[in-house]
Amino acid sequence: MKHTAEDYLLSSVKNALRILRSFSLDEPEKKVTELASSLGLSKSTVSRLLHTLASEGFVTKDPETHKYRLGLTILQLNTVLTSHLEINREAQPILEQLVDDLQETAHLAMLDDQSVIYIHRVESRQPVQALSHIGRRNPLHCTSSGKVLLAHQKDEDIEAYIEQGLTQFTLNTMTDPRVLREALHAIRRQGYAISIEELREGVASIAAPIRDYTGKVSYALSVIGPIHRFHPYDPTVIAKVKRAASEISEKIGYWPSSPPTKQPIP
Question: Where is the IclR-ED domain (predicted)?
Fold first, then answer.
């Protein structure tokens, strides 16, 4: 089969995007050889694409280490995106109130492929905080927001996630498919998920679903903190997180079939 110039152009664009997506919080800098090996591309191809990306500010090269990292153009695009996400604007005052009440950091998260990605954050004023970042991707089965989002997917999508394997990160990570299925069923029933040291030791979190105008669970609200200070099983914490998620849902157009009733705070 003969390839056209357009085919080669599309292939180059795809590979350039793969290069950009390969950078992460865990690996913010990479050499040409590392990128070529991980992506299955030749070093000459990677070098050519990086040169083009650098000329437009998408990546920068450290002259001493010869490693590449994401450039300021990415930050500019991220600012454009996040400033126009309706949910970020609508949720901001509700998250600020929740953070004031609970004195811990709150996030908004959404499903992206088979990961949870954090799209907004309101930080607490506590001197010691659990490490979190906007744009960070985490697994679904060992985070409170991830479990909330996974619990509201179709059964076949849940099984597809389970079939890829449930990686263990700590002693508390759920790696048994049967246990995870039961947990997801309970999450759908109770309307929230809790994670205690399932992804990282010393960290606890709670999340509740946020529904869009169609009634679909498109986002999750989570609150995260160190376990020595934050206790997500506290009925007061659970009630406040669920109420905040419900208020955000209504802000972005969701209206339950029956008029909402205020949940009493214990």
Answer: 73-254
